[in-house]
Design goal:
The structure holds two protein chains of two kinds.
Chain A: H1 8-16, H2 23-42, H3 45-61, H4 72-97, H5 102-120, H6 125-133, H7 136-147, H8 152-159, H9 163-181
Helix pairs in contact in A: 2-3, 2-7, 3-4, 5-6, 7-9, 8-9
Chain B: H1 2-13, H2 16-21, H3 26-35, H4 40-58, H5 66-83, H6 92-103, H7 107-131, H8 133-138, H9 140-149, H10 152-163, H11 173-183, H12 193-203, H13 207-219, H14 224-236, H15 240-252, H16 259-267, H17 273-286
The chains are: A mainly alpha, B mainly alpha.
């Protein structure tokens, strides 16, 4: 199979036409970056594996809604954002249902997050801890820009703002991260 | 002397990330470069930003366990089996299970919105009804009694009669809201009420009655006709409140079939911008 040279969009068009095997090369190209993106957002590897799997399930489920003219990358990241947002919303619901322990849970989650991150990669403890202290929207924009190789144009499209606005947001997020990172 | 210096620093702070990134326009880059030698504070910031940038670049990507690939392959195999027509018999169950898994996080979100809509409808209806106490006592009272006393079928017929415009609109809008709200409390999914309510949603001239009907239909959402009816209603309703309510409903019920209608709605020139925005957001949540 000489699938590696085929574009994302061609592969997805084939998937859309029920040639599901063409999703395999797309999985190979994207599952790593998507897992990374979700891990940075959630700070939870197990959860991110589940969410990554959900993204690919949704790709299959909603394959007929893919328009071959749209960039696959933008489409799949939009889906990953939705999967993450759905998860976030469900967590919020659980918290509201049990609001008495909300604060305890939050602190617990934060500490747990810090621990699991330490387990992940020792050499960048401080950086990850600082990233995790950023509000999610700021963290997301930095993750897209610095870890996922998104240009400001692409970020703008994904977040529904202009490239210039995306650039300003990314710079603000970087300044915010700097303040946390060098706080001590 | 210090104040202008500080405000200059404050102003430059926003430019420093771009400066470090070397993406500043030449004129601004020169301004920063000219300021830096005299300002230890900004120098420190630039150094920190450089160090941070290097650390970000050096951060290693997280790699998933191989189980992720195995799970993906298993899922793909399962989906391929579903495509084979012969395998139709054993397959519906897994599909249902999967759908349920994805859908489960939404209904509660929808319910909250619905409670809000329901509360406002009930408040309006109660207010109006209190104001026309006598009128309600003489006319609606019999309707209420009848619906309690008669079997289901007769109740549907009565509901249909009361809600049908051909009736000459003898029943006021607030009474119709009350009827729609009351009747569905005692009905079960799958009965004729759904059809009556869908007719009301399509043909009742009053948007508040249609809103109350939406609420009633949401309670009967297990009936497949409801999903179909909502998709249809999306294409014909023109009242912005009803439109937004319908969008919320199809999103919270995850009615994927509604996406084409939402796309049309998001481009309809006669729809309010807020409706179009809601439709666009809805598409984003559904795909």
């Amino acid at each position: 199979m000489t699938l590696t040279s085929t574009s994302d969009e061609e592969l997805m068009a084939a998937v859309r036409a029920d040639d599901l095997d063409q999703l395999v090369p797309l999985f190979e190209r994207y599952h790593g970056p998507l897992f990374n993106y979700l891990t940075r957002l959630t700070n939870d590897r197990d959860l991110s594996e589940d969410l990554t799997q959900t993204v690919f399930e949704r790709i299959l489920k909603y394959r007929s809604s893919y328009q071959p003219t749209q960039p696959f990358k933008a489409w799949v990241y939009q889906m990953a954002r939705n999967v993450h947002a759905d998860h976030w919303q469900r967590q919020q619901k659980l918290r509201v249902a049990d609001s008495d322990v909300e604060d305890v849970e939050r602190t617990g989650a934060l500490r747990g997050g810090a621990f699991s991150q330490m387990r992940i990669s020792n050499s960048h403890d401080d950086l990850h801890e600082a990233l995790n202290l950023l509000p999610v929207p700021q963290r997301e924009i930095l993750v897209l820009n610095r870890f996922q190789g998104f240009g400001y144009e692409e970020i703008g499209k994904l977040l529904g703002c202009t490239a210039e606005a995306a650039r300003v947001k990314a710079h603000r997020a970087l300044q915010a991260l700097r303040k946390i990172y060098f706080a001590n | 002397m210090k104040t202008p210096e500080l405000s200059a620093c404050h102003e430059l702070e926003a430019l420093l990330p771009a400066y470090v990134e070397r993406s500043l326009p030449a004129a601004e880059a020169e301004r920063v470069a000219a300021h830096l030698p005299d300002c230890p504070g900004c120098q420190l910031q630039v150094n920190q930003l450089r160090a941070l940038s290097n650390d970000l670049d050096a951060a290693l990507p997280e790699t998933p366990r191989t189980a992720l690939r195995a799970n993906f392959m298993a899922m793909l195999e399962e989906q391929k089996q579903l495509l084979k027509p012969e395998a139709a018999a054993p397959t519906p169950v897994p599909t249902e299970a999967k759908e349920a898994k994805v859908v489960s996080m939404w209904p509660t979100a929808g319910l909250n919105n619905w409670l809000r809509v329901a509360a406002s409808v009930v408040l309006i209806a109660t207010g109006v009804l209190l104001g026309r106490n006598l009128h309600w006592g003489s006319q609606g009272g019999t309707a209420g009694l009848a619906s309690n006393a008669t079997p289901n079928q007769e109740a549907h017929a009565q509901l249909a009669r009361a809600l049908t415009p051909a009736n000459g609109q003898v029943v006021s809008a607030s009474d119709r809201i009350q009827l729609v709200t009351n009747t569905t409390k005692e009905t079960e999914p799958g009965d004729a009420t759904v059809q009556v309510l869908l007719n009301t949603l399509n043909f009742d001239p009053n948007p508040n009655v249609r809103l109350a009907t939406c609420e009633a239909l949401y309670r009967l959402r297990d009936d497949p006709r409801v999903r179909e009816g909502l998709v249809h209603a999306l294409s014909v309703q023109t009242d912005p409140n009803v439109q937004i309510t319908l969008i919320d409903m199809v999103v919270s019920m995850r009615v994927r079939r509604a996406v084409p209608q939402l796309e049309k709605l998001s481009k309809r020139p006669d729809a309010l911008p807020v409706v179009r925005a809601q439709a666009t957001a809805g598409i984003g949540k559904l795909i």
